[in-house]
Task: inverse folding
């Protein structure tokens, strides 16, 4: 891998929690860091804070609400123009199970179950749109921030119209991200682009965890070390298609290893994202 200081890295969900600390750490190492967020004020504040903390002026911001696939497309188009070479994509943006006690099913701007849309469809689409940029910078890495919380996808009710529980929706979206990781890694195995995913840490001290769970079991620093391991370790140069539980390879939910389930998910995702594979 190239030295981090020579890399251009996109971190989604970079204005808070794990994403912000990841962006800060990579900026400290001299990388050109592209910060994604959905709130312009928080993006501007994050940019200023990281620049002041690191002295790194090679920072840029990208605004997109991942609940709108059109916004994901627009952001990808801008990135393709500004950075035709992208060394690393860290798909970190996501939403949790929502406030405790609230079980209201929510929809994205496109009419999809909100957690499936934000946590899975948005990074699925963004990754595919940015593949040309990653191919121009090989060797490149794609890192998907998933979770140990995973629930099987019922392809008869993917949008959870019949049986809805916000935490089940979250877990389903995270398993979908793991399945996408395995599927894409196989497709790119000869292209010098590695694709891995991880559970960074359990119930980190973030706003998302406090809102949906109410207590914490680990810290953002612990999660950061896991993400940085996947992002910066030379020993992972040829490791692809793996799920990590923090720093160690682990087994994901059994459905992630079901090729037919992954095929179904891929075809559904391409349809929902209006994405035609070349």
Result:
């Amino acid at each position: 891998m190239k030295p981090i200081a020579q890399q251009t890295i996109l971190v989604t969900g970079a204005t808070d929690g794990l994403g912000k600390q990841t962006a800060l750490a990579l900026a400290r190492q001299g990388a050109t860091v592209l910060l994604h967020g959905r709130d312009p004020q928080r993006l501007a504040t994050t940019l200023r804070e990281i620049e002041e903390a690191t002295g790194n002026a090679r920072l840029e911001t990208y605004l997109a609400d991942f609940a709108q696939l059109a916004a994901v497309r627009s952001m990808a188009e801008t990135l393709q123009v500004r950075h035709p070479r992208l060394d690393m994509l860290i798909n970190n943006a996501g939403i949790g199970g929502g406030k405790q006690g609230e079980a209201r099913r929510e929809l994205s701007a496109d009419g999809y179950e909100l957690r499936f849309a934000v946590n899975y469809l948005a990074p699925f689409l963004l990754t595919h749109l940015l593949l040309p940029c990653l191919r121009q910078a090989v060797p490149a890495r794609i890192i998907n921030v998933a979770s140990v919380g995973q629930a099987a996808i019922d392809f008869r009710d993917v949008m959870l119209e019949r049986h809805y529980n916000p935490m089940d929706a979250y877990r389903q979206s995270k398993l979908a991200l793991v399945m996408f990781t395995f599927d894409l890694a196989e497709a790119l195995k000869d292209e010098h682009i590695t694709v891995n995913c991880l559970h960074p840490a359990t119930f980190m001290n973030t706003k998302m965890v406090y809102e949906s769970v109410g207590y914490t079991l680990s810290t953002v620093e612990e999660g950061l070390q896991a993400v940085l391991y996947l992002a910066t370790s030379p020993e992972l140069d040829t490791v692809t298609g793996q799920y990590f539980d923090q720093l160690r390879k682990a087994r994901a939910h059994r459905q992630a290893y079901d090729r037919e389930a992954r095929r179904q998910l891929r075809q559904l995702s391409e349809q929902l994202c209006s994405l035609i594979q070349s």
